[in-house]
Write a structure and sequence with these properties.
The complex is a heterodimer. By secondary structure, chain A is an alpha/beta fold. Chain A has 2 domains: 188 residues, Rossmann fold, CATH 3.40.50.300; 63 residues, no CATH class. Chain A is built from 9 helices and 9 strands. In chain A, helix 4 packs across helix 5 and helix 5 packs across helix 6. The longest helix of chain A has 20 residues. The radius of gyration of chain A is 18 Å and the shape is globular. Chain B is mostly helical. Chain B has 2 domains: 89 residues, no CATH class; 200 residues, MetI-like (MetI-like fold, Orthogonal Bundle). Chain B is built from 14 helices and no strands. In chain B, helix 2 crosses helix 5 and helix 6 crosses helix 14. The chains are: A alpha/beta, B mainly alpha. Chains A and B meet through strand 5 and helix 4 of A and helix 11 and helix 12 of B. The complex binds adenosine-5'-triphosphate and magnesium ion. The site of adenosine-5'-triphosphate has 12 residues of chain A, from strand 1, strand 2 and helix 2.
């Protein structure tokens, strides 16, 4: 799967931001949500964004998704501008809330993007079955969202983003509302999913351990104006059991992230 | 996975236990409802005595009984309660059986309702089923047109800023004009171009029923939040896909709430449409004829027929709503 995912995408960085700026014009004056953001994400990387509330993590992800228009600088996704990439269905987006449609079953929710993108009936069936298995929800195809726990709903929303097999996955605090035990399990599952599919991940989180555990690259951001204050390349191996969190390397990176966050707060 | 969580009412109770629970639940609702109905009927009977007192006393006087005050002109200036207190015997005995009472007793209305529905052929000119059908057909035609128009306008309003700014104010203004004022105009105008019968009434019905549908449907079509809309944008969905897959299903619960108001409004529209023409058929015609000839029992039975019809229509829509929403997984 990794081979096909890499084979069909164009060469170059998956996401490339150069001097990206975004200013919201609100009633209380302009809000500088992103200031001079420079970032390159390579194929197959797992990049986490961490930073205090309001530092522009969601805004950056929405820019990549073409849901927000930057006011300055350049941004490319798969070599296209974000709007064109959006129309080319270059990415799957997982929002902070599961946001499943209550009138559709779990299977029906996962079919939604497939219906819109015009997959064949047979292909739809196959993909729904496969993605449900991928997030460990086999047997729940005909349940309605309210019959599932919060964690299961969040997994279903990840399955929905995976179903059309985009190479890039954008996730905005997908596990933010879940308790730590469920979160650990889902983190493990997400890592193994990433290892199996070779997708490129952009992942927003508030949790330092989560960021360190998951990422090959951690982007530390600071607020007012929202900017990148540190980019940390993780030396952790690709194979990561949960107890890697007690290792020396892990603790060192977590420390550096914490320092980066503190420095960002003081500078602001 | 079990289908009933343990905390659900009736969970862990056997079948017979569940039936008993249901009975208790239903009984818990039925008893207060019946109590209120009984109280209202009792109040109604009591009210008949002073309301019909003048007639009762007059009848007693004609049959040679002693009444106070003896002069009819003096009685005319008295209130019904005072007159009943001065002549308790006649007031009480004749209050519930007059031909043309000011306020007919409940059983008189019930008997008239029964006689004019079950008691005669539905094709008879005096049958309430005949007149009810005339009104119902105009109601349904108007309701269908009003609903379709309301949905179309709502779709336009949600998708076009121009329509939002131009149509909504007119829709609101249209509803501030009393229907009593506009109904005769519609009927006269349509009559002058040769349209009469069902159609003018249906127009008035549609006029009354489109508005709740517009309001409810606009709210429903706008009910999806920004995240749900953004999700579809990330799929590169077209406007049409967004409408069919998100806005429309999300709007259905709102639509049904509006339909229930709309169908009752439609019935009122059809009845009002029958009044200004001096129509000879329909529930409105029965009301009109009743008041023309002082047939109060007939008026009241037509009123009740209209109320029952409205209740049935609303119940049918509620039934469809429950069925549809359950099939969609929206009702649990
Ligand atoms: N649509 C908008 N209009 C105006 N201001 C906005 C808008 N969206 C975001 N902002 C502002 O931009 C800044 C960055 O917001 P953003 O949502 O990206 O923060 P975040 O890092 O995702 O925070 P959190 O961790 O709380 O989700 C905030 O100050 C916010 O108030
Ligand atoms: Mg955010």
């Amino acid at each position: 799967m990794q081979a096909t995912a890499q084979g069909r995408a164009p060469a170059g960085s998956v996401v490339e931001a150069k001097a990206l700026n975004l200013t919201f014009h609100t009633n209380d004056g302009p809000v500088h949500a992103l200031k001079d953001v420079n970032l390159a994400v390579e194929r197959g990387e797992f990049v986490s964004f961490i930073g205090p509330s309001g530092c522009g993590k969601t805004t950056f992800l929405r820019c990549v998704a073409g849901l927000e228009t930057p006011t300055g600088g350049s941004l490319s996704v798969n070599g296209l501008d974000p709007d064109a990439a959006r129309r080319a269905r270059a990415y799957g987006y997982v929002f902070q809330a599961a946001g499943l449609y209550p009138w559709r079953t779990i299977g029906g929710n996962i079919r939604l993007p497939l219906e819109i993108m015009g997959f064949s009936e047979e292909e739809k069936k196959r993909r729904v079955r496969d993605t449900l298995a991928l997030v460990d929800l086999d047997g729940f195809e005909n349940k309605y969202p309210w019959q599932l726990s919060g964690g299961m709903q969040q997994r279903a929303s990840i399955a929905r983003a995976l179903s059309f097999d985009a190479d890039l996955l954008l996730m905005d605090e997908p596990f933010g509302a879940l308790d730590e035990i469920v979160r650990d399990r889902l983190n493990e599952e997400l890592l193994s999913l990433w290892a199996r599919t070779g997708k490129t991940m952009l992942f927003v989180t508030h949790s330092i351990p989560e960021a360190v555990y998951l990422s090959t690259k951690i982007v530390v951001m600071s607020p007012r104006p929202g900017r990148i204050s540190d980019v940390i390349d993780s030396p952790l191996p690709k194979e990561r059991p949960l107890d890697i969190r007690d290792s020396r390397d892990f603790i060192d990176i977590a420390h550096r992230v914490r320092e980066g966050l503190r420095a960002g707060m003081e500078a602001a | 996975m079990t289908d009933t969580p343990l905390s659900a009412p009736g969970a862990g109770v056997g079948r017979s236990g569940r039936v008993a629970l249901w009975l208790r639940g239903a009984g818990g609702r039925i008893v207060p409802v019946l109590t209120v109905i009984a109280a209202l009927i009792a109040l109604w009977y009591v009210a008949c005595i002073p309301m019909n007192a003048h007639q009762s006393v007059l009848l007693a006087e004609r049959s040679g009984a002693e009444v106070t005050p003896a002069a009819a002109s003096e009685r005319r200036n008295m209130g019904g309660i005072a007159l009943s207190l001065r002549n308790p015997g006649p007031a009480l005995s004749a209050a519930f059986a007059q031909d043309r009472p000011v306020l007919p007793a409940p059983h008189q209305v019930a008997v008239e309702l029964w006689d004019s529905t079950a008691g005669m052929r539905p094709t008879s000119k005096r049958s309430l089923i005949f007149h009810g059908w005339i009104t119902l057909s105009a109601t349904l035609a108007g309701f269908a047109v009003g609903t379709a128009l309301g949905i179309l306008l709502a779709v336009g309003i949600v998708h076009s800023r121009v329509m939002d700014m131009s149509v909504m104010p007119w829709a609101i203004v249209s509803q501030t004009i009393p229907i009593i004022a506009i109904a005769p105009m519609i009927i006269v105008v349509l009559y002058s171009v040769g349209v009469q019968g069902l159609l003018p009434k249906a127009v008035i019905s549609a006029y009354l029923s489109f508005f709740p549908v517009v309001v409810g449907m606009v709210k429903g079509l706008r009910s999806p939040d920004a995240m749900q809309l953004d999700l579809l944008r990330t799929y590169g969905a077209t406007g049409g896909q967004t409408f069919w897959k998100l806005r429309l299903p999300a709007s259905l619960p709102y639509l049904f709430a509006s339909l229930k108001i709309g169908v009752a409004a439609s019935l009122i529209g059809a009845i009002v449409g029958e009044l200004p023409t001096g129509a000879v058929r329909g529930l409105g015609a029965r009301l009109l004829a009743g008041s023309y000839y002082g047939q109060t029992v007939q008026i009241w039975s037509a009123l009740f027929a209209a109320a029952i019809l409205a209740a049935v229509l609303v119940a049918i829509i509620a039934g469809i709503e429950r069925m549809l929403l359950r099939r969609m997984g929206l009702a649990r």
